[in-house]
Amino acid sequence: MTLHSLLGRSAGLLLGALATTGIATAGDRPAADLIVEHARIWTVDAARPEAQALAVLGDRIVAVGSDEDVHAWQGPRTRVVDAGGRRLLPGFNDAHVHFSGGGASLAAVQLNDARSAAEFARRIGAYAKTLKPGQWLRAGNWDETKWTPADLPTRALIDAATPDNPVSIDRYDGHMVLLNSKALALAGITARTPDPPGGAIVHDARGEPTGALKDAAIDLVERVIPPPTPAEQRAAIERALHEAASLGVTSVQDMANPPVDYGDLGVLAGLLAEGRLTVRVYMAPLITGVEDQARLGIRRAFGGPLLRIGAVKGYADGSLGSRTAYFFEPFLDQPGNRGLLSDTMQPLSRTREYLARADATGLQVCIHAIGDAGISTVLDLYAEVEKAGGPRDRRWRIEHAQHMAARDFDRFAALGVIASVQPYHAIDDGRWAEARIGHDRASRTYAFRTFREHGVRLAFGTDWPVAPLDPMLTLYAATTRATLDDRNPGGWFPEQKLSIEEAIESYTLGSAYAEFQERDKGSITPGKLADFVLLSEDVLRLPPAELRRARVLKTWVGGAEVYSAPGH
């Protein structure tokens, strides 16, 4: 019996049903399974923003209020948790992750914090020694902007360290990889290999490939890399589930990529059947496979509370870091380069067909767009589809929405497009962005305040493993905009900061809205799913600069405790 059916009956019928099912009662109501008391609850519910306690029956919240109010729900078998006056928030909903990729990265070579090209090569060599001959070395998340000089790595840097293993390691933005010579040979890439549409093979002064591939060119090597086995996928997802629970992330919106998207869905379905799925997942496979869901009649947010599909994800361009984001004007440091329009956007008529098919089916669309021309192109396409199909609640999204043209904020709002943004990218890219695109364009980078002033809904995420999954870092980034190099302690374009309350709302209710689930989650409200997190610090009272020290003590999903920090 669900909570909604219980609450929908008269008191007499309710008590009769409880008697026959053996559910304990407290007075004239069912006894709660869980009560959390003596808390400082920020509910993200405008009707009652603050409370002391909450009660859970089944997987839903049944009461929110003072300790005295909620005690009325206590019965002989109710578990009572004393929060000790600590801050309790709705569970965080990460609106943009690559979930199995994040889990896989936890066990991969760690390159993001390598501070030099020599350290980068040393770590790769050390990790290669742990692999079997012929086994691919992948992931890594390297970032050459942390080196001096900040030159792109080449295969010459890693060949000697990886004689027995092909290497394809990711730049941290996911839009460039570095291959060693063995991997280049397996992929059949030579000096004569042409750039594919929407991609680039980087060459040295002699015209030879350096090993770096950008965007669509990555497909040239992906097609020869063995896909992960089901066991490897499951291990990655189990690591990801533990990581999410430990950080208070109770929902994720998985922007899946081939070849693992449907394999991941199968693993998640298996975990669900086993009762081991501890994070709610909404998966968006690539839009190029729109027919997969369309033929089945699947619509947006199809599935159950723990696992849903019904969205598709596309690409308009690349990234700022790889200089493949698509701009109206060239990069300042590469005057002949405006970035790359994605291969799936060439020709635009093909993307228009994908969007029309998704719209006719009732699927949600999420398009990655970073450069101002990329974003504008997507808004053009969205407007065309809406004109043809008529107005309705599509909640189509632009993922990242990073560098806006000034004229497009109003269009964003008029079309009801959701800005699915990742604040950590702002404090990371802010170290070097102005050198690439100048002050004016950078002033409209991750323009959270401007979006809100134009009535655009924000949904917060991380893009994990591109950025850390930790919500405390995201809240820190949104409220301080203090770049990671410590050169902007007052904030990089500080006029775009959000308050902590606005940031939490974007990370909970905003993200729930972005997946059509605002009636079921995103706030601590009676009737909603019992997803919430207890923190070590009161993040609403901490100075924003100190938010990074807050830690998760407990995480609940559907009223079940899925994480407890040591000693708690």
Helix and strand topology:
Layout: H1 3-7, H2 11-21, E1 25-26, E2 29-30, E3 34-37, E4 40-42, E5 50-51, E6 53-57, E7 60-65, H3 67-71, E8 79-82, E9 87-90, E10 92-97, H4 99-105, H5 117-128, E11 137-142, H6 155-158, E12 167-171, E13 176-179, H7 181-187, E14 199-203, E15 209-215, H8 219-222, H9 230-246, E16 249-254, H10 261-273, E17 280-283, H11 290-294, E18 302-303, E19 307-309, E20 311-315, H12 348-361, E21 364-369, H13 372-389, E22 397-400, H14 408-414, E23 418-421, H15 423-429, H16 433-442, H17 448-453, E24 458-460, H18 471-480, H19 500-507, H20 509-513, E25 532-535, E26 552-557, E27 560-564
Parallel strand pairs: 3-8, 4-9, 10-16, 11-12, 16-17, 17-19, 20-21, 21-22, 22-23, 23-24
Antiparallel strand pairs: 1-2, 3-6, 4-5, 6-7, 9-25, 12-13, 13-15, 14-15, 18-19, 25-26, 26-27
Helix pairs in contact: 4-9, 9-10, 12-13, 15-18, 18-19
What does this structure look like?
With 568 residues, the protein is of the alpha/beta class. It has 3 domains: 1-85 and 524-568, Roll (Urease, subunit C, domain 1), CATH 2.30.40.10; 104-222, Diaminopimelate Epimerase, Chain A, domain 1, CATH 3.10.310; 286-517, Metal-dependent hydrolases (TIM Barrel, Alpha-Beta Barrel). Helices cover 31% and strands 21% of the residues. The protein is built from 20 helices and 27 strands. The strands form 6 sheets. The protein has a 6-stranded mixed β-sheet, with helices on one face. The chain has a 5-stranded mixed β-sheet with strand order 10-16-17-19-18. Strands 11-12-13-15-14 form a 5-stranded mixed β-sheet. Helix 4 (99-105) packs across helix 9 (230-246), helix 12 (348-361) packs across helix 13 and helix 18 (471-480) packs across helix 19 (500-507).
